[in-house]
Fold this protein.
Amino acid sequence: MQLPMDHLRAEIEAKACDIPFDERARLQSSLAMLAETVKGFPNPALRIDVTYHPHSDVYHVEFKLKLPGLTIFTGEENPYLDTALQRCFRKAMRKTEAYKENPDRQALAVAKSRDALNREVVAPEDPEVGPLAEAAEAGDYRRFRTGLAAYED
């Protein structure tokens, strides 16, 4: 399940369980707080894995939050899903706040410039117009690759 957020891309995967509707509502408010915390970072991404272990009657929750220059990992096991999720959120918030105080400035600068480049590059609406289309039409692979070189990392 992917959740739309303005400042944070969040993906949740549940294994051997379903996340109840009331828990999803609480999850949204916690995600909103985390999204506000990572607002200054370009392209933050959160992956949440929830696994229920029926033999031990325990939920295992893992968070993986990608920020420029750092990936924050947290994990928690608890018989109550809500408790495990909230503890992971608190850990992720503490680790994110600590990173905000002393970020990897070089990785942050690279990520911001890449993000700006991604926003500025606009492909032509008609793919059959321009020098790339002409090179493709002529079967000139070298000219086509040379034209693409400006768009590659």
In short: The first strand starts at residue 2 and ends at 3. The beta strands are 2-3, 9-15, 45-53, 58-67, 70-78. Residues 106-151 form one domain. The mean pLDDT is 84.
